[in-house]
Specification:
The protein is α/β, with parallel strands linked by helices. The chain is built from nine helices and eleven strands. It folds into two domains: 217 residues, Spore Coat Polysaccharide Biosynthesis Protein SpsA, Chain A (Alpha-Beta Complex), CATH 3.90.550; 63 residues. The strands form two sheets. Strands 1, 2, 3, 4, 5, 6, 8, 10 and 11 form a nine-stranded mixed beta sheet that branches. The chain has a two-stranded antiparallel ribbon with strand order 7-9.
Length: 302
């Protein structure tokens, strides 16, 4: 890796983000403190006024792209950025707190750290539970109501957000990543198209001996759902969870995981979740899966 020209390369992927992107960009200067930084925004084919908003500004480089997925857009943004010590991954519907990035960078510079996640709040100021446990057979159903870690991927306990500690992964709305380690891992896996890419990245970093660290000393707000969720994106999310599990555990265990996933989505559909019926149909009929995933050639998605 060549000598960094800036401390932080902020990278953002937009898709129909006109309502939020200006607020995101406006928050960056105060968040950076005395650090040097750049901003690259890759637009994945927005059909609203996102491009007009971006091109009216002088504080970012805009890269127009067809929509070949979030991970591909993020990797493209990194390629268009100057050399930097760290990559700041941002969702367009996030807002950074003043001084948050130097705080995250201080944590990232500790030996063995690859990813740093800040404390995130919702638009109403309440805690956003962004920390996650790794995928296991027991957690396939997302049974958060039990409160038991063995069944729950999402960490709900507020006390877990009060102290700095290592986590398996965190939601990717705001993450600071070591540039050299991002490159060593080959960036984000573009085969996921949308969802699971940040899970995969942190787990691969852990496989390589590098940690993801949460720090409550840095803060940000995330509106969430900035691009909305449809039956198609819900299907992508569920299919990618199965693909991730298969890639990490093998076909036999993943076959059981797949069956439990189908049962879970049927249960959700019966409870009134309207996006789950299309997902069930896509799970059991590969030809009905979103073509963008490239997962339509076998019952157990690869």
């Amino acid at each position: 890796m060549t000598e960094p020209t800036v401390d932080i390369a902020a990278v953002i992927v937009t898709f129909n983000s006109e309502a939020h992107i200006a607020g995101m960009l406006d928050s960056i200067p105060a968040a950076m403190g005395d650090l040097s930084w750049s901003v690259v925004v890759v637009d994945n084919g927005s059909t609203d006024r996102t491009i007009e908003v971006l091109e009216s500004r002088a504080d970012c480089t805009v890269v127009r792209s067809s929509n070949d997925g979030y991970a591909a857009g993020m990797n493209r943004a990194v390629r268009h950025s100057p050399e930097a010590s760290a990559i700041l991954i941002l969702n367009p519907d996030a807002v950074l707190d003043p001084g948050s990035v130097p705080t995250m960078l201080a944590v990232l510079r500790r030996p063995g750290t690859a990813v740093v996640a800040p404390r995130v709040r919702e638009a109403d100021g309440s805690l956003s539970p962004t920390l996650r446990r790794g995928p296991t057979m027991g957690r396939v159903g997302g049974l958060s109501f039990t409160g038991w870690a063995v069944f729950t991927e999402r960490i709900e306990d507020p006390s877990a957000y009060e102290t700095e500690h290592e986590v398996e992964w965190a939601v990717g709305a705001i993450l600071l990543v070591d540039s050299a380690r991002y490159a060593a891992l080959g960036g984000m896996d573009e085969s996921y198209f949308l969802y699971s890419e940040e899970t995969d990245f942190s787990l691969r970093a852990k496989d390589a001996g590098w940690s993801t660290v949460y720090t409550p000393a840095a803060g940000a707000m995330h509106i969430g759902g900035g691009s909305g969720e449809s039956a198609t994106t819900h299907t992508m999310k569920i299919l990618n969870r199965v693909r991730l599990y298969r890639r990490r555990t093998g076909t036999l265990r993943a076959s059981v995981y797949f069956g439990l996933t189908v049962a879970t989505e049927i249960r959700r559909a019966l409870l009134g979740h309207d996006k789950s019926w299309p997902t069930v149909r896509a799970l059991v009929r590969p030809t009905r899966r979103p073509p963008l995933l490239g997962a339509s050639d076998a019952l157990l998605p690869r």
